[in-house]
Amino acid sequence: MLTKFKIWVFNQATWIYNIEYMIISIFILIGVMLVDLNIYDIGKYLPDFMFTSVGLAKLILAPLAGALLTITTFTFSTILAVMIKYSSSYSSKTIENFIKQKSTMKILGIFIGGFVYNIGALVLMGNFKNGDEVIAGFIGAAYAIISIIYFTIFVQNVIVSMQTPNLIGRIYDETKQVIKREIAGRENAPVIKRSDRDKIVNIYSKKNGYLSTIDYRKLKKILKNIATLCVIDCKISDYVNKKTQIAHIVLREGALINDIQHRINETFIVLDNKLYFYDYRHGITKLIEIALRAIAPVVNDPNTAIHSIRKISILLSYLAKSEHVHTAKVEEEDFQILYIENNLTEDLYFTFHQIVHYAKDDVSVMRALLEGLLLIEQSSTAKNRIFVDEYAEEIYTKSLPSHNNKMDVAYLEDVYKKFIHNND
C-alpha cells in the first residue's frame, strides 16, 4: 500500500502542490478575517503599519488579483514552452526532469493561491465600512511580494534547466542515487536452493505495461506461510503482457495459492510509464537519447554526445563493481524472495548498442566510447573486466571500416591499445 501511495503521489504531485497552496491561502484568509472582524482580539499585538483602511485594502487587492491571474497564465505558457524545448532538443523522457522540479510544481499553486486569497478577501470585505482598519490589504501585498520572489527563483531555474550540461548533470545525479541503492541491495546474493521434488507455481502478469516496481513487503506477507521461495523472473522496466511469466513460487508441502493469486499479482506494479526512482536504466536511457539526438545530422553536436557518454560511463563503473545475479529482497530462515539483476554484459549492450550504430562514422564519439569502456574496466571486478574488454574489441572492430584516414585509425588505436596493455 505504501508503494502504491508513493507512486500515486509522484504521478499527482502537481495537483497536490496546487491544492496545497490553495488550502494554505484559504486558511490565511480565514485567519485574516478573524482578526479584521475582531472575533479574536489580537489586533492590538500587531504593529500599526499592518493596518490600512478598507478602501485602501480594496485598492490593493483588486489589481493584485488580476496581476496574479495574468502571471499564472504567463507562467503556464513558459512551462509549456520549456516542455516543447525539452521534447524537441533532448528527449520526451527528459520533460519529467523539469516538471518534477519543486519550483515548477509549486509555482502555479502559489499564484493560484494568491488569486484565491485576493478574490476571497474582496468578497468578504463587502460589508466593511470604508473607515474600518484591516490587515487584509497588507497580507495581500506581502503574499504578492513572496510570489514575485518565488517567480524569480522559478525563472532562474528555467534558465539553468535549459542549459544542456545542467540537464545531463541532474539526470546523472538522480540515476547515481538509484544505482547506489541498487548496489547496496546486491550485497546479499544467496544461492537458489531448490530440488526436483519442489512444487512450482508460475505467476503471470494480469496487465500490459512496464514492470515498475514490486511491493516486497506485501508479497512476503502473502507468501511467507505457504511458500519457501519466490523468484522474480522479470526485471524492473521490462515490458510485460498478460501472458508474461513474472515470477515462480516454490510452495510448501500441501499448500495452495489458487485463492490468492490475484493478491500476489497486485504486488507487481505494472504501469504505462517507467519510474526513475526504481529503475536506473530509465535515467541511463535519457542520457542515451540526449546523445543520440546530439549526433543526429540535423543537430550535429558531438560534444554533447561525448559529455553524455562520459556520464553514462561513470554510472556503469559503479555497476561494474558487482557480479551478483540473484539478490535476496527478503531472506529469512525458511523463506526467500529473489530478484534477478541485470549483469554488466546486458547493461553494456543496452547502453551503447544504439550509440555505436548511429555514431560509428564519428571518430571523436567512438573514441569517447572506448575511453568510457576503459573507465568502466578500471572499476570492474576480474570477471566483469573480461566482458568490458570483449565489448571494447567489438566496438573497435565495428568502427574501423568506417575510418579510412590513418590519423582517425591511430586516434582510435591510441585508446584501444590500453585495453591490450591492461591484459598483458
Describe this structure in words.
The chain is an alpha+beta fold and 424 residues long. The chain has 2 domains: 2-162; 174-185 and 279-323 and 342-423. The protein has helices at residues 2-11, 13-36, 54-89, 95-99, 102-124, 136-161, 164-185, 216-223, 261-266, 280-295, 302-319, 344-359, 363-379, 382-399, 406-423, and strands spanning 52-53, 133-134, 199-204, 209-214, 227-232, 239-240, 245-251, 268-271, 326-332, 335-340. Strands 3-7-5-10-9 form a 5-stranded mixed beta sheet. It has a 3-stranded antiparallel beta sheet with strand order 6-4-8. A hairpin with a 2-residue loop joins strand 9 and strand 10. Helix 3 runs parallel beside helix 6 (136-161), helix 11 (302-319) packs parallel to helix 13 (363-379) and helix 13 (363-379) runs antiparallel to helix 14 (382-399). The model has no long low-confidence stretch (mean pLDDT 86).
